[in-house]
Amino acid sequence: MLVLTRKVGESIQIGEDITVKVLEVEGEQIKLGIDAPRDVDIYRSEIYQQILEANQQASQTKNSINLLKNLKKD
């Protein structure tokens, strides 16, 4: 993991297309601005984990349905 120290108004560059800028520091909260192309999905990590779990559950459900359909054909 790369650890950087930035002040308000400073930014970091990720590749050619993504810039993360420190907008504000207030107590224990930091406001970040992220400039990225529209085709880049950006999620808070807890939301991303929920998406992964929902996709995994949907995949398991689809596999179960396909298995039941195959059993019904026999």
Automatic annotation (TrEMBL):
Spans through the membrane: none
Name of encoding gene: csrA
Protein name: Translational regulator CsrA
Location, primary (coarse class): cytoplasm
Family indicated by similarity: Belongs to the CsrA/RsmA family.
Keyword Cytoplasm in record: yes
Keywords from the UniProt entry: Bacterial flagellum biogenesis, Cytoplasm, Repressor, RNA-binding, Translation regulation
Alphabetical list of SUPFAM superfamilies matching this protein: CsrA-like
Gene Ontology biological process terms from the UniProt entry: bacterial-type flagellum organization; mRNA catabolic process; negative regulation of translational initiation; regulation of bacterial-type flagellum assembly; regulation of carbohydrate metabolic process
Cellular component, GO annotation: cytosol
Keyword RNA-binding: yes
NCBIfam families linked to this entry: csrA, PRK01712.1
Record GO terms (molecular function): mRNA 5'-UTR binding
Complex formation: Homodimer; the beta-strands of each monomer intercalate to form a hydrophobic core, while the alpha-helices form wings that extend away from the core.
Gene3D superfamilies tied to this protein: Translational regulator CsrA
Compartments it resides in: Cytoplasm
Role, per record: A translational regulator that binds mRNA to regulate translation initiation and/or mRNA stability. Usually binds in the 5'-UTR at or near the Shine-Dalgarno sequence preventing ribosome-binding, thus repressing translation. Its main target seems to be the major flagellin gene, while its function is anatagonized by FliW.
InterPro entries per record: CsrA, CsrA_sf
One Pfam family it belongs to: CsrA
